Amino acid sequence: MTAPRTVLDADAYWERHYNEEFRFGHGTEHILAELRRLPPAVSWADLGSGSESLLWATALRARELTAVDIDPRRLAILAEFAAAARPRPAHRTALALSRRTEQGAFAARCRWLTATVTADCLTGRPLSHPALGQRFDLLTQFGLLGLTRGPEHLVRCFTAAHQLLAPGGWAAGANWEAADLTGRVRLSDTLLSYAAARCGLTLTTVRRVPSADRQFPAVWLYTGRRTHP
Predict the structure, then answer these.
(1) 1 within some domain
(2) Which residue range(s) make up the domain with 106?
(3) pLDDT classification of 3: cutoffs 50, 70, 90
(4) What is the pLDDT of residues 120-178, one digit of tens each?
(5) How far is Cα 49 from Cα 143, in angstroms, rounded to an integer?
């Protein structure tokens, strides 16, 4: 039994969520606020990135981004968007929320994208790829772990993913809580804290934020630092 995937295909998802104005009330502004609190990072890996990494980049300070996703089309959209370096309405609002209004701020973030890796982050096994041979200062996932099937699957995937995080490095994530939990894990602060502890991650934030999206009425946010190898 495989994990559930996003409903829309890569191109439809991109047009629906990123060719329109920023959607307030769906939790995204809360995620960006948490990301702004993180310290600068040199290397950043975004797991299950889809085509969205540059939205989160508006709130972060990094130098090199490696985007990892199972869908090569989503990665191609991300790479094409980074090459064009022209923010869409959602990105312009995210930049304003993050007080990144200086000319060239978005283009500078587009240059962070140094590698894309096609890989399944939900096998529960460590990822193996030449571009993932290093330990990263920052590891993120947005929506990925909410696709796991249950608590054991989430813990395995969480642990495997964070093997890529350097000691002292920071992690951040957000997972949408589906109204229909068929085939999906039921998220909680207890489960996320347990998964983090299993891989030496000390959480500084873990909370549930209500959302106006009827299909996904809440989002779970967490940030933390790897305090143990």
Answers:
(1) no
(2) 10-226
(3) very low
(4) 999 999 999 999 998 999 999 999 999 999 999 999 999 999 999 999 999 999 999 99
(5) 9
